[in-house]
Amino acid sequence: MTSLTGAAHSGLIQNKIGAKLPVVERAEGVWLYDSEGKDYIDGCSGAVVANLGHSHPHIVDVIRKQSAKVTFVHRGAFASSSMYRLADRLSNATGMAGVWLVNSGSEAVEAAIQFALQYFVELGRPRPRFLSHRRSYHGNTLGALSLSGHARRAVLGELALDFNVLPDPYSGAPVDELLAQVRAELERTPGQVAGIVFEPLSGATLGCVPLPDGYLQGLRALADEFGTLLIADEVMTGLGRTGRMLACDHWGVRPDIAALGKGLGAGYTPIAAALVSGRVLDAIASGSGSIRGGHTYGGNPLSVAVADAVLELTLNLGLADTALVKGEWLSDALRQLAEKHPMIVDVRGCGLMWGVDLARPGGESAAAAPIGERLRQAALAHGLVIYPTTGGFNDACIIAPPLTITEDELQHLVDRLDAAL
Ligand code: PLP
Fold first, then answer.
1. Which of 290, 316, 342 is the C-terminal boundary of a domain?
2. What's in the keyword line of the UniProt record (predicted)?
C-alpha cells in the first residue's frame, strides 16, 4: 500500500496515522494541555486563527445558547437575526459595503474571484484573467490554489488555471521596478485582467513579510488606471491581527474585494467572508446574474452567532489596538533573541503577526532537516507551539499568539523560544 505518512502528518488522511502527534485534551486562553498533562503556549493561535484564545467563556456560552435555539436553516428560505447583525458589524468595522458568508478562507477567495468575474460581466465587458504574486498562498481550492504563486506549480503543474503570476514584492526589490513589471503585465493583456490579488503580509509562504511601503498604493493606482479590481486576501491578516481591522489600512488603501477567514470564527467554528465595495456590490446586485458561490453551510446560524460574538468582543476589547502595543513588546523581545542567537537572521511583522528567518548553523550540510522544522520540534519539546514556513529564501517560523495574551504569557513565550533556540 502507498505510504500515507506525509499526508497523515499534515492531518490529511486522518485514519492513517503515520506520525505520532501530541493529542490535545483541553485548551484555555493561550494554553493547550495534552493527554500526558504537558502544557504548551499556543504561540501560533492554532493556525493564526484563535484571536480570542481558546475556550473563551463568552463564546462558549454563545455556542451553548445558539445550539439550543437553531443551528441550521436553508439560506435561500430563511435568515437568522445574527446574520444581519454580523453583516452590519463587519461592514461597519471594515468600511466594505457588502458581506457574503462562506465557510473557509479558500471559499472566500473563490467568492472573490467569482465576484470579480461577475462584476465585469455585468458591465458588459467580461475579463478572464487574474494577477497574483509569485510567493503567495491563497488556499487549496482550484481557483485559490491557481492564484497561489508558491504552491500552484508544485501541486497543480500544468493543471493550474491560467492566472498570471507577478514577481515577488516581498523580495526587497525596488518598489518602482516591481510596479513597472505589474504595469507591463497589464499593458500586455489590455482589458483582460479582472483582478490583482495580494496578501498584505505574506503569511504561510514567507512567514509574515509585509508588502514594501508604496507598493500597495502603487497597485491601487495601477488598478484604477487599467480598470482592474484590487482583491485583498486578508484571510490571515484581517480582523485585528495586524493592529487594524484590514491590514490594507496600514497603507491607507481600500481594496475592491477582501477575503476574510481564520479570525472570523476564531477557532470556534468554520466561517469566512468575501467583502465587496459599494461599486462592486451595485454592479453584481443590480445585474442579471444571481450571486454565485453559495455553499450549504455558508452563513449557518451557529457559525454566524459565534462570528458575531467574536467580532463584538474584538471591537469592545479594542484588540486591534492592543495587538499593536503587545506586538511592539514582542518584536523588541524577538530582536533581543536575534542578538543572542545568530540563527535568527531577520525579524519582521506587524501587530501580533511576526516571523523570524532562520539560518542553518555554519558548516551544516544542505541535506540536514530544515531548520524551521527543527526549531518547531525544539519549541514543542519546551512547551511552545510555533509554525515553520518554507516558501522563502530562508526557512522561517511564524509567531502569532492570541490577541488576548497577557504580558506574563508573552514573557513565557519568549523564554520558551529562547530555550528552544
Ligand atoms: N488565504 C491565506 C492568506 C491563507 O493564509 C489561507 C490559509 O492559510 C487561506 C487563504 C486559505 O484558508 P482556508 O485554509 O481556511 O481555506
1. 316
2. Aminotransferase, Pyridoxal phosphate, Transferase
Phi-psi region of 301 (alpha: psi -120 to 50; beta: other; left: phi over 0): alpha
Rounded (10°) CA dihedral 10, 11, 15, 18: 30
Answer yes or no: do 19 and 103 share one domain: no
Q: Whose CA is nearest to atom 2 of ligand 1?
A: 138
229-233 vs 257-260, strand pairing mode: parallel
The grid cell for 81 is 437575526
Task: Look at residue 375 and tell me if it is in a domain.
Answer: yes
The grid cell for 239 is: 480582523
Q: Is the CB of 261 under 6 A from ligand 1?
A: yes
CA of 69 to the centre of ligand 1 (A): 31
Classify 344 as helix, strand or coil: strand
- Alpha-carbon distance values, 141 to 12, 204, 321 (Å): 15, 16, 33
| Interval 157-207: pLDDT, tens | 777 777 777 888 888 899 999 999 999 999 999 999 999 999 999 998 899
Task: Please give the Cα distance from 285 to 122 (Å, whole number).
Answer: 9
Query: Which of 198, 236, 241 to probe ligand 1 with, by most ligand atoms within 8 A of CB?
Result: 236
Residue 237 Cα: closest atom of ligand 1? 3
Verdict on whether the full-model pTM lies above 0.90? yes
Ligand 1: atom nearest CA of 199 is: 3
Give the span between the Cα atoms of 156 and 159, in whole angstroms. 5
Nearest CA to 269 out of 112, 79, 59 is that of 59
C-alpha cell at 18: 503515520
Cβ contact 392:137 at 8 Å: no
Helix (H, G, I), strand (E, B) or coil at 343: coil
Whether residue 65 is contained in a domain is answered as no
* C-beta of 103 in contact with ligand 1 (< 6 A): no
Q: How far is the C-alpha of 306 from the C-alpha of 299, rounded, in Å?
A: 11
Interval 272-312: pLDDT, tens: 999 999 999 999 988 765 566 688 999 999 999 999 999 99
Identify the CATH number of the domain in which residue 411 sits.
3.90.1150.10
All residues at 6 or more sequence positions from 377 whose CB lies less than 8 Å from its CB, including other chains: none
Query: In terms of residue numbers, what domain contains 103?
Result: 70-316
Q: Is 236 in the pocket of ligand 1 (CB under 6 A)?
A: yes
Of 215, 199, 217, give the one whose Cα is nearest residue 207. 199
